[in-house]
Specification:
Strand order of the largest sheet: 1-2-3
Strand content: 15-25%
Largest sheet: 3 strands, antiparallel
Mean pLDDT: 76
Number of strands: 6
Shape: elongated
Radius of gyration: 17 Å
Distance between the termini: 42 Å
């Protein structure tokens, strides 16, 4: 069953992105990426309660990036500079580029993850560990669980 579509925006390399009513980020049948309710992405408002569900939903950089894009632009891409609605994907740099003002936009800009050397999968795991730890987690414990060699990121 295909979700009803709110908006369609062409993103180079991913095909037209559809931000569906159900909250899933999907692409058209010709696209290379599909994130729908039959796959691994968690729906809006839910939380992966087990590590198995978390690791299935956020197992790759692409899944994390698509999740952030869906959270950041629930009604479709909007340029933070000019408000433009059309963008295309720069796969070599993992950025969207606005067609109107040509500004390059990352889904991580304006977050602690921006320009980090750590992969998004590690950031998502850190957030999940902090959120699910009932008694809290120290920075040293987090460093150990994430396999970080240094205390800084």
């Amino acid at each position: 069953m295909r979700p009803r579509t709110l908006r369609t925006r062409k993103v180079h390399g991913l095909g037209p992105l559809r931000f569906a009513v159900s909250g899933w980020l999907t692409t058209n049948p010709e696209g290379t990426t599909n994130m729908n309710s039959n796959e691994t992405m968690v729906p809006d408002g839910s939380f992966p309660t087990s590590f198995d569900k978390f690791s299935a939903a956020f197992s790759s950089e692409e899944n994390c990036r698509l999740y952030l894009a869906r959270c950041r632009w629930p009604d479709g891409f909007r340029c933070p500079s000019c408000g433009g609605r059309d963008a295309y994907w720069l796969s070599a740099r993992a950025l969207w580029k606005c067609k109107d003002c040509r500004r390059q936009v990352s889904v991580t800009s304006g977050t602690v993850m921006h320009r980090s050397r750590q992969p998004l999968t590690r950031w998502f795991l850190a957030a999940w560990l902090v959120a699910t730890s009932s008694s809290g987690i120290s920075a040293r414990q987090l460093q150990s669980k994430l396999g970080l060699k240094r205390y800084e990121t």
